[in-house]
Amino acid sequence: MEGELDEEKFKSGEYALVATGLLGVEIEEGEDDFYEVGDKLTVTSSDDITKVYEVMARCSIPYALGTQRYSLLGGQVIIPDSEYFSMTDNKSAISVMINADENKFDEVDSQIRVMTDSSDSRIMLKSKQTYMEQYDDFLKMVKLVGGTLAVVLALIGILNFMNSVVTGIISRKKELAMMNAVGMTGRQLKQMLAWEGVYYAVLTAACSLVFGSLLSYFIAQTVAGEMFFFTYHFTLLPILICLPILLLLSAIIPDVSYKTICKTSIVNRLRENE
Questions:
Q1: In a domain, 125, yes or no
Q2: 170, 261 in Cβ contact below 8 A?
């Protein structure tokens, strides 16, 4: 992130790399620089051996390669292994990273499991496959919860749409009867009602496109924005799926509703609410 890594100078044992930061705090670039390139850094081991290093560079450590622990004032120091062993008698490693070629992965994995799967082993193994399986399980949970919520909201929206169209037709029963009385045919009325339903559907799609997209973006950013393995991708697919359903309902509901109210004669419909 800052400075340059000189491997020969780093191996001399006089320099260190640092990775520091404030956990979960949004700050301007440079304000979390607890150490700058060229600063002196004092490191004390568990055996009370102290040594001063010069900061060669500031860096960022990937989660999988770090301690996988967090603190408010997080800080990690990288020094050569020879320096570490000169400061402590503890030769045990907290974690060991092993890179394997794709064509050697199964072979390396089986060899490591011989050591880790024994009954007296306290070593915990996490491989690439482990993280992939954990991610798949998490993804299935998100899809299940999100999919269920989407279906419930879709049903509520469709029922609300149907209720609005049907209520509008029933409340205008007398008005429709007057149109019949002056010579408007049933087919013309059904076409008029169907087009009104289409306008409702198009207006619904337009509102969903504008307000729904903004709402989904902010919700997705709030829920998944803190997860480094998620990225937001905008899609119109849900709207494109729902729109034909609304258009189909716009054609069916007016036809069914009109046939229902037409079971009563025009005279009786005109006399209602008198």
A1: no
A2: yes
Pairing of strands 15-22, 50-58: parallel
pTM of the model: 0.55
Last residue of one domain, picked from the residues 53, 87, 121: 87
Tokens of 5: 């890594």
Q: What is the CA radius of gyration of the chain?
A: 34
Which of 87, 122, 143 finishes a domain?
Answer: 87
Domain that holds residue 30: 2-87
In a domain, 192, yes or no: yes
Q: Among residues 132, 90, 92, 91, which one has the least CA distance to residue 109?
A: 132
Written in H, E and C, the secondary structure of 82-121 is: HHHHHHCCCCCCCCCCCCCCHHHHHHHHHHHHHHHCCCCC
**Distance (Å, rounded) from C-alpha 198 to C-alpha 192?**
10
The pLDDT tens digits for 141-190 are 988 998 898 889 888 888 887 888 778 777 777 777 788 787 777 778 77
Q: How many structural domains does the chain have?
A: 2
